[in-house]
Write a structure and sequence with these properties.
With 129 residues, this protein is an alpha+beta fold. Helix content is 50%, strand content 20%. Strands 2-3-1-4 form a four-stranded antiparallel beta sheet, with helices on both faces.
């Protein structure tokens, strides 16, 4: 019978140790316990978002860009204009800040002219269904 050298013994021990660690990782299961209220809240949020973004009215888009910049723009806009509804909408790959809920294009254009001073890239949109 052949005796293992110290170097071979360390190699074999490491191999066995790694083999059992990897087999343990593969065999693990993940269980996710989620509060049922979360799904209810998420469904309600989806419903609200669709009613905000898709209707037969005009909106003004004041910003189009990254998530962080859109949040900053929305916060700044709400500080300056308390009488407008405003929201962030994600449309791949950009975030957009939409304001207002105007019945007619004329009403939207009046508001657009007032907003152009602070938001020169603003445009009128009519979201599709």
């Amino acid at each position: 019978m052949k005796l293992l050298t110290k170097k071979d013994l360390i190699k074999h021990s490491l191999f066995i140790l790694l083999f059992f660690n990897f087999s343990t990782i593969i065999a693990q299961e993940v269980t996710l316990n989620q509060d049922p209220k979360f799904e209810k809240l998420l469904a309600e949020k989806r419903k609200v978002n669709s009613s905000i973004t898709i209707n037969n009215r005009y909106k003004i888009q004041i910003f189009n860009g990254t998530s962080e910049e859109s949040k900053k723009t929305l916060i700044q806009f709400k500080k300056e204009n308390k009488n407008y509804d405003a929201t962030i909408v994600f449309s791949t790959p950009l975030y957009k800040v939409w304001i207002g809920n105007f019945k007619t294009r004329i009403e939207a254009e009046r508001n657009l002219n007032a907003l152009k001073k602070n938001y020169p890239n603003s445009i009128i949109i009519k979201p599709n269904k």
